[in-house]
Recover the amino acids of this structure.
């Protein structure tokens, strides 16, 4: 962040002449739009709903009910649900061009596409009782997303569409909460035709992400540094940097290094002209407690519920003195997985440990050149992933 602040000051000091900076691309029309506007911009139908969880969080859910290539056929379509990863939002699935974004490709292939948002991100920051300015609002992690958010969202979709079963696509944390929910909630698991796991994450013992640095700090130190509410919010400053700096060719390398500092990136597999869009739509936020949960997972090497810090609080939440360990082998949902050889978040060693635990693994592909964001931003994702994913859906009709 300080590096980009330096860039901003440099712009102010030297001016923004086209000759010095090599010119800039016009600001993308998608940069300052909300999710529905981003969908509508490309000519797709957009619907927006508020879903309510059992513990009173209000989650924004988005729908693309049909594609541009099959708009005449309004018969009921198979339902696909897309769930984003850590500190992200539904925009992950639509921030590339339509021929490269999974949500648009699925809509054009004849599917009823729904996209969720986890509690606390930019689009799901409401609660019937708690304000986002209160610590109580932010007292959640993976456990609550799996226990409350997924059932509420999936049940809402089932009720709205009248279809009892759907396809589930998750990326990173979107797979984590699915592994928890589908292994602990058999009734919810029955609603899933196929679980498509992109960059699957359960344990993070071998992760090479800079997120590991949090594990060297005590909980008290983390809260001193980040507080006890929101972690990595999408700020006005980042919006400014995206619109005024990252659309200039001179700063693309700096911006990409900042944007993908947690996950790594391959400039050869990204549409580098859209870095301003990626930055403007990134950093949707989560809770500090969720980051503490991830830090706990790195330190323990276990796929385990959040440790509330003392036996009494654990007993209150789990009816046992220590947090329960999630048993992925209890999940009976047909599962297809893709992992990457350059993924420094979902390390291949953790994935290798996960594979034998998937009792109904129907497909697995290892992509040697893939990093953590290639699964939804990679220019070759349609060839490496999406065409096989859609083929499996068609075979499941």
């Amino acid at each position: 962040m300080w590096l980009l602040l330096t860039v901003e000051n440099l712009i102010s000091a030297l001016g923004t002449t086209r000759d010095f900076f090599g010119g800039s691309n016009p600001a993308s029309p998608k940069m300052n739009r909300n999710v529905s506007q981003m969908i509508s911009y490309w000519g797709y139908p957009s619907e927006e709903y508020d879903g309510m969880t059992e513990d009173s969080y209000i989650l924004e859910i988005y729908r693309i009910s049909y594609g541009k290539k099959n708009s005449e056929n309004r018969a009921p379509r198979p339902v696909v649900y897309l769930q984003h990863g850590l500190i992200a939002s539904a925009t992950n699935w639509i921030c590339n061009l339509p021929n490269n974004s999974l949500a648009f490709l699925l809509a054009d292939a004849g599917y009823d596409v729904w996209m969720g948002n986890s509690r606390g991100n930019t689009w799901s920051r409401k609660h019937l009782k708690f304000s986002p300015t209160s610590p109580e609002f932010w007292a959640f992690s993976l456990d609550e997303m799996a226990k409350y958010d997924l059932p509420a969202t999936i049940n809402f979709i089932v009720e709205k569409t009248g279809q009892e079963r759907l396809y589930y696509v998750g990326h990173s944390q979107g797979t984590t909460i699915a592994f928890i929910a589908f292994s602990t909630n058999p009734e919810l698991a029955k609603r899933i035709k196929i679980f498509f796991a992109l960059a699957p994450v359960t344990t993070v013992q071998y992760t090479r992400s800079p997120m590991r640095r949090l594990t060297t700090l005590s909980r008290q130190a983390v809260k001193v540094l980040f507080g006890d509410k929101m972690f990595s919010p999408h700020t006005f400053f980042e919006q400014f940097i995206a619109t005024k700096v990252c659309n200039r060719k001179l700063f693309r390398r700096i911006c990409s290094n900042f944007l993908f500092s947690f996950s790594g990136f391959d400039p050869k597999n990204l549409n580098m002209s859209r870095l301003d869009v990626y930055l403007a739509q990134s950093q949707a936020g989560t809770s500090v407690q969720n980051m503490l949960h991830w830090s706990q997972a790195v330190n323990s090497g276990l796929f385990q519920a959040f440790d509330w810090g003392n036996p009494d609080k654990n007993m209150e939440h789990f009816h046992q003195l220590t947090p329960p360990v999630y048993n992925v082998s209890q999940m009976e949902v047909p599962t297809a997985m893709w992992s990457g050889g350059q993924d420094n978040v979902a390390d291949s060693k953790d994935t290798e440990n996960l594979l034998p635990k998937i009792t109904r693994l129907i497909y697995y592909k290892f992509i040697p050149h893939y990093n953590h964001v290639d699964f939804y931003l990679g220019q070759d994702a349609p060839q490496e992933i999406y065409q096989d994913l859609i083929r499996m859906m068609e075979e499941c009709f």
Notes: Residues 142-161 form the longest helix (20 residues). DSSP finds 16 helices and eleven strands in the chain. The first strand starts at residue 47 and ends at 52. Residues 96 and 274 are 8 Å apart (CA to CA).
